[in-house]
Amino acid sequence: MNAPFAHDDPKIDTTRRWPLTAMPAYPLPRRTAWRRSDVTERDWLLPIPDACLAEIDAIVGSLREDPIPTLVLSPTEFDMPECRRLAGRLKDVLDLGIGFAVLDRLPVESFSKDELLAVYWLLSQLVARPVAQAFKGTLLYDVHDTGKKTDTRVRADLTNEVLSWHTDYGFNHPPPYIGLLVLRTALSGGVSSAGSLHTAHDVLRERDPGLLQRLYEPFVWNRQGEHADGMPICTSNPIFSVQGGVLRARFNRALQPVGYRLVGQEIDQDGMDALNALHDILSEPENHVDFVLAPGQIQFVNNARVAHRRTAFTDYQDPALKRHLSRIFLRDEGRRSYMG
Questions:
Q1: Residue 5 lies in a domain
Q2: CATH code for position 324
Q3: Tens digits of residue pLDDT in 15-36
Q4: C-beta separation of 143 from 157 below 8 A
Q5: Is 174 contained in some domain?
Q6: What 3 state SS string does 252-321 have?
Q7: Whole-number Å distance between alpha carbons of 139 and 125
Q8: Is the pLDDT of residue 5 over 60?
Q9: Could you tell me which of 211, 245, 173, 133 has the C-alpha nearest to residue 18?
Q10: Residue 231 carries which DSSP code?
Q11: pLDDT of residue 3
Q12: Helices within 9-76 (DSSP H only)
């Protein structure tokens, strides 16, 4: 194996590095290392019960009579026992099940955009605490095509381009959960997929344990300009780490080659081969699930265990019809700031 880059460059922040650990010596359990053949729609599609929708309708009615800004709303202010039961089922899927779920669905025809965001904000807090997902402190992040192309400082989620396999915010302090509320869909395209990184881990161990070992060693990550002036422009972290006996992952193979170039280096061949191998395993049809999100649905993902992707899409010309989603990061530990 080629020796990975020695990360002692002042342009690389190593203060938030995951511990470097040995890989587990046993096959991971099938409930987390699942294949497409193990999964049915019932494992991840959670209908919102009528009783929960009635609570939501009452909340929206209350906000219409007595408005409160969305970002100060708390579930403790409302009667939500059925929604709490639904959130408990959701957490079980995220923590103990296949690691991703879609709540189906909020009534987009009955609520305004602001009302949908208020409900989304409240339901998400039943999973964990919302935290900032941009350096400027954004708590609800608009996912839409801005007309730009992916670049060093332009996130791919602000384009209509393919979003390849990734977890979110791998270059800093990843949230354990992410949510995505669908407000409007595109004219065509935008198909979503989810795949278990535990599965990809064990497949790679069978095929090439040397490449898997490289994923337990540090990589340089581009921070996409999301940091204070004068701070390091990159971070250093492995793809896999075992913490508290649990295998955790962060993955986005688009950020490592750029990160290395930003600090005047080139990624080692073993590192690039390992990233490509992980991506290719996730892409194999047996190792992921495809689905098309609909307006009013909310996708939640265990961000330390499940990678997701999205195909390119063609949008409407009318701005009022263009694809629009809202993302939320959820994390109970650390500060609520972007740096965590």
A1: no
A2: 3.60.130.10
A3: 778 888 888 877 899 999 999 9
A4: yes
A5: yes
A6: ECCHHHHHHHHCCCCCCHHHHHHHHHHHHHHHCHHHCEEECCCCCCEEEEECCCEEEEECCEECCCCHHH
A7: 12
A8: no
A9: 173
A10: S
A11: 45
A12: 50-65
| Dihedral sign for Cα atoms in the order 298, 304, 306, 307 | positive
Residue 165 placed within a domain: yes
Q: What is the chain's percent helix, strand, coil content, to nearest 5?
A: 30, 20, 45
Query: pLDDT per residue over 146-164, tens digit each?
Result: 666 555 454 556 677 888 9
Strand partners, 241: 248
Q: Which CA distances in Å does 340 have to 135, 172, 224, 230, 235?
A: 10, 9, 17, 18, 14
Residues 6+ apart with CB under 8 A from 340: 16, 131, 172, 173, 331, 334
Establish if 335 belongs to a structural domain: no
Domain count, the chain: 1
For the question of whether the overall pTM of this predicted structure is more than 0.90, the answer is: yes
Compute the distance between CA of residue 49 and CA of residue 167 in angstroms, rounded to an integer.
29
Cis geometry, peptide bond prior to residue 85 (ω within 30 degrees of 0): no
DSSP 113-149: HHHHHHHHHHHHHTTS-EE--STT--SSEEE---S--
Q: Is the pLDDT of residue 205 over 50?
A: yes
Based on C-alpha coordinates, what's the Rg of the chain? 20
* Side chain identity at residue 216, one-letter code: Y
Residue 298 is part of which domain span?
12-27+35-330
> Would you state the torsion angle of the CA atoms of residues 206, 209, 212, 213, taken in this order, to the nearest 10 degrees?
150
| Token pair in block for residue 306 | 């499940």
Span between the terminal Cα atoms of the chain, in Å? 34
Kindly state the DSSP code that residue 28 receives in the 8-state scheme.
Answer: P
